[in-house]
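Troubleshooting: if your tokenizer reports a length mismatch, compare against these two reference records.
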Amino acid sequence: MAGGKSGTVRRNPAAEAEDEIEAILRAALTPDVSLGAVLKFVHEGAGVVVIDGTKKPNEVHRRDVPADCTVHVDPLLNLAIFQRHADQGTAFRQGKIRIVGDVSVVASLRPIMLRQSNATEDGFRE
């Protein structure tokens, strides 16, 4: 095969980023925290990751459902933000993030993510 090893399957980097984002959110959204709303991350060309904070405990899934707040962002940038390799404020000011709906929903995720990163040694991952 030209350009690669036979039998090697390469995944889409955006899909891999979504897998990691979903795992990070599941780890951070412990049963004692609740967003109280639905937050959707739309990753253009890849898919969605949704936090349904109206359920107890929060539910993280990839079904495209209506949300109280929708964040449009590249999945690789979103992963970098969750891993604290990129600053969400800077990305927003540069127009790399677009938020539709109740901005307070996405703002309420930040302290949850910071609490998780302070509880672990390597960013938002357990």
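Reference record two:
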Amino acid sequence: MDVEAETQDVVILRAGPRSDLGEAIVWLVAFRNSAEVDIARGDNMGQRLSYSHIVTSRQPVGMWDPASGAAIRVPVPEALGPGNDGLALIIQEKNGALPGRILGAAAIMR
């Protein structure tokens, strides 16, 4: 799997074919590097906790085909949205109703 910049605002995910694998979903996952959260209830009520690598959205952006691979163009500013620091592109096998294994992943930071 390779991610290359086409322009400042567009990246291309390229993943070649592999006949020994099955069809897979390409996910776009937006995330924030960190955030501090005031806890309002529960055992940690009244504390301020730090979280890192916070997923803010996950959406399928295409399919990877074992016979032909995939080339998917991603508009980075629109994919990141407001307040996010980066995005990950993940190729994940289908396993019926369950998540399958990750075949490849790449991260892009703002």
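Descriptive notes for reference record two:
- DSSP finds one helix and seven strands in the chain.
- Helices lie at 76-80.
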